[in-house]
């Protein structure tokens, strides 16, 4: 049916918030859908075809290599503009903002890309799943030094950020809880990727190093147990 100006404004607002905006043409294409139907489409990205990147790769062969960080940033912007799954891409950007990391520390493009792809896959699930995936993410692992978190020498950086910034917030846990959280994540590290030369970076992946994990009892948030990160 014909869209009233009010309908149009409301749908345009929704797509600015839950995506990256829509052109007049795109709004007219969904004019026969109710607001509720559009919301349902947004929260079920699997209803829509995954974006085809062949076109992009044909004109940007450097996307086939793992070293060019800027071209992959451009690729993501291209996805934001062209995706048929706007909320999926918007939530990917949202979580990238919340769980901020930067390329310059690891200087390892596959891990930078991999983290964004993880957010794309889990961004509409639940916070427990997202945090668990993040704890196993090589880019975050290196960014917050969990690879330096050993049973005989804990590093509290990831445990602290997890409680303070990523989940509970200041005032809801004790300093001792931070120490116990750090112990629970000892041995959570990643496979060292092969060196850059001569063929470019290889991918890294999560590794649980059992011999480096603190298996002793921990008291966390008032509960005792042999806790690990999960």
TrEMBL record:
This is DUF1800 domain-containing protein. It comes from marine metagenome.
């Amino acid at each position: 049916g014909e869209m009233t100006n009010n309908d149009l404004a409301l749908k345009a607002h929704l797509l600015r918030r839950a995506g990256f905006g829509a052109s007049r043409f795109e709004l007219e294409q969904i004019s026969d859908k109710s607001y509720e139907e559009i919301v349902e489409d947004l929260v079920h990205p699997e209803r829509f075809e995954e974006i085809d990147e062949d076109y992009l790769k044909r004109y940007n062969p450097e996307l086939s290599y793992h070293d060019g960080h800027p071209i992959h940033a451009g690729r993501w912007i291209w996805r934001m503009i062209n995706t048929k799954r706007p909320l999926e891409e918007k939530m990917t950007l949202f979580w990238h903002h919340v769980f901020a990391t930067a390329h310059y520390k690891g200087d390892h493009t596959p891990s930078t890309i991999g983290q964004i792809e993880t957010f794309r896959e889990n961004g509409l699930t639940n916070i427990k799943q997202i945090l668990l995936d993040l704890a196993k993410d090589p880019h975050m692992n290196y960014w917050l030094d969990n690879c330096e978190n050993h049973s005989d020498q804990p590093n509290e950086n990831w445990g602290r950020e997890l409680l303070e910034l990523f989940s509970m917030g200041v005032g809801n846990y004790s300093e001792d809880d931070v120490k116990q959280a750090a112990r629970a994540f000892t041995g959570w590290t990643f496979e060292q990727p092969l060196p850059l030369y001569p063929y470019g970076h290889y991918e890294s992946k999560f590794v649980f190093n059992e011999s480096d994990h603190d298996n002793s009892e921990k008291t966390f948030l008032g509960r005792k147990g042999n806790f690990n990160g999960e």
